[in-house]
Amino acid sequence: MGIETFDLIILGSGSGNSLVTPYWDDRRVAIVDSGAFGGTCLNRGCIPTKMFAYPAALSAVPAEAARLGVDLGFGGADWTGIRDRIFARVDAISAGGLHYRDVELEHTTVITEESRFTGTHQLTTSGGRVLEAETIVVAAGSRPALPDVPGVDRPQVHTSDTIMRVPRLPERLVVLGGGFIAAEFAAIFSGLGSSVVQVNRSPRLLRGHDATISERFTELASQHWDLRTGWTVSRIEDGPDGWVTVHLDGAAGATLELDADAVLIAQGRVPNTDRLDAAAAGLDLRDDGRLCVDEYQRLLAGGQPVPGLWALGDISSPHQLKHVANHDQRIVAHNLEHPEDLRANTLGPVPAAVFTRPQIASAGLTEEQAVIEYGRDRISVKVQDYGDVAYGWAMEDATGLCKLIADRQTGQLLGAHLMGHEAPNLIQPLVQAMSFGVDAHSMARGQYWIHPALSEVVENALLGLDVPDSGRL
To answer: Which residues are catalytic, by number?
Structure first.
């Protein structure tokens, strides 16, 4: 088998797939991906999880309505109907994308095999095909991390890759982890009717978030499902009737056993660099396994950019977020097509949301980070409860909040953290202000805020900051 030569090789069919612009119409392009076409977001991440999260959130409506004097009922969820509706759409998009790239575009080839570097500009697939190109973009993504404990290979044990396609709704689900993936799936399955037990080693969930959000969410989560903190999984064994027993270790030699018909391991994600043999290309790696890139997304070897090698998305970014990968892709696409006019990847801040119950959104620095970077006396912090604005009164909301952090000297927003109804939507104007340098007072007083919309919680939080007066009334 001879060497196959291409003008561009893309490792990964997620965000990297969009690199195939009309610029490459008269060139040979290969997309190499052994997984479902379209990558994690489409097939196993953002899209299907949020399509589950919305119907699961509806299950909480009857309880909320009852507090307001409206009698609604929840009669259960049709798991197979929800699952099949979601994946009928997702799978069709994936199949359509594969057909378009591999069949309809004459200059593009899709290779559905694992591949690894066997030279700086050479790849060898698991089937023995040798591929070479002057330009290679690594967009190989990440995968769920698995603990090194006995029993993780049992069929009842799942990750986010598989849990959404189980044939029936688990009667009892054990969720191992305390990050955003664990929080979303705990809310989804508890909402749809599973008895959920979430297990976390540390006392707080969502520890990467601002402490105010993390602490309040941990308290609320314990009210929505069974939360066990201070425990670490030691092994998973077969139990009666096809169930499994999850063995946990706690402090001072304490042990705990939990029976479940399904287990979800949600303990973070790892970049797929260990499958690429980056050393064969001499590529630099960070301590967490990510590929090193410069500000233009060029791969580095010995601290220097390697001509023709680029990376984007989870494989190189500290932010495992689809919108970040998409922006990386736009940077790489421009730089590939305009090598004389390289653009740096400087966009910030990076917002993120957790579609759990209640929803959470954040951007910029946490209070702890702001204190370290600016000093306690330099920052102003305001926590505004949903329940203190008119729409919050209408909702009888007792848990939602908007927390803002700003520079006392300049009035610039440093961080925004929301938890509650529509938090991912409410944070967007704050992201806009942070991105375009609008100071907090100008943002609050330089526009009308609709009354009595829930967005007033953002307005009042801005007004509550101790920052310079912009002169607007």
So the answer is: 451
